[in-house]
Amino acid sequence: MAELEVDVVAADGKIWSGHARQVSAPAADGEIGILAGHTPVLSVLRRGEVRVARAGGEVLRWTVGGGFLSVDSDLVTVVVDSVEDATGTQVAH
């Protein structure tokens, strides 16, 4: 199965980087799901949960305060204004 290369970053540094089979994010006009082979897209994000599903079944989750998502050639870049981990703790870099 083809994979995505994913980077989740904030203004002050990288949150996570790695390979995944799917990325879901809260786009301004509704939830967006990205799989390998997705057409290029640039989307504004609203507050909500970003989920990265890894090949082994693990799902990583962050609550973001907004930002944008870019997809091009199976490279997904999620740039966030603010981010909390699944426990609600502000992520520090």
From TrEMBL:
CDD domains: F1-ATPase_delta. InterPro entries: ATP_synth_F1_dsu/esu, ATP_synth_F1_dsu/esu_N, ATPsynth_dsu/esu_N. Transmembrane segments: none annotated. F-type ATPases have 2 components, CF(1) - the catalytic core - and CF(0) - the membrane proton channel. CF(1) has five subunits: alpha(3), beta(3), gamma(1), delta(1), epsilon(1). CF(0) has three main subunits: a, b and c. This is ATP synthase epsilon chain. One of its GO terms (molecular function) is ATP binding. It comes from the Bacteria. It is a peripheral membrane protein. Produces ATP from ADP in the presence of a proton gradient across the membrane. NCBIfam families: ATP_synt_epsi, PRK13442.1. It comes from Cellulomonas cellasea DSM 20118. The gene is atpC. Gene3D superfamilies: F0F1 ATP synthase delta/epsilon subunit, N-terminal (2.60.15.10). It is found in: Cell membrane. HAMAP family: ATP_synth_epsil_bac (MF_00530). One of its GO terms (cellular component) is proton-transporting ATP synthase complex. Keywords: ATP synthesis, Cell membrane, CF(1), Hydrogen ion transport, Ion transport, Membrane, Transport. Belongs to the ATPase epsilon chain family. Residues 4-82 form the ATP synthase F1 complex delta/epsilon subunit N-terminal domain.
